[in-house]
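EI: anyone free to look at a 243-residue chain?
SC: sure, send it
EI:
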Amino acid sequence: MAEMARTATDPETAIRPIQAGDAALRDRFIEAHLPFVRREVRRFTGSFDVDGEDGFALALEAFDRAIDAYRPDRGAPFEAFARVLIRNRLLDEARRIRSAPVLLSLSSQDEEDGPTLGERLADPRSVRVQEDLEFEESVAELEARLRRFGLSLAGLSGRLPKHDDSRRLCIRMARSVAEDISLFQRMLSEGRLPGAELSRRCGVPSKTVERNRGSVILLALLIRSDLRLVHRYIAGFEKEESR
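SC: here you go
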């Protein structure tokens, strides 16, 4: 029981021996995190009794995948990483059900002598699989950093500026923070946006900085992240401004 409690409270220390092949520890680790998995499914589905639902089985599969894919050196806590994989797996299933596409058998082959779809997906060397995992790890790291500021991706998604001018201003303020290493590190270490300094640098009122606090923090973290898709979006938006 004590060992199970340790795997739940300090999951990062248990990951390495599990990844090295300790099957018994994996089973105990998963059992200790069943409440965590149930909680994530409840949040997604709105249901209370989730054990008999397909979503719970999918979430367990995603959690098991998270154990193998997690890399402590990325800096994201394990549960934040697992939460992203579970949510993405449930979202994929919800989209699949809504769109009802033609099913492709995992045992079918695109080419006569090539690997099956299932073999390609299971291959850890698959470029697409690795890209997906790197994206999910980056999102997990981003969510972990946002929590230090009392923010979340879900909470910020509907509050980003809708008006073009306001969006450009937020990007400009975010770049001012992100591209100054000392200012960015100060923001991270203090857990707050350096509002007065940002107001002075960008020539905007302090109230404007505070009103857009969450958006500026999120954008600054995104600019400093390795999410290349986001970089292209921000660069494209700034290019439109210069026309």
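EI: Residues 78-99 form the longest helix (22 residues).
SC: 👍
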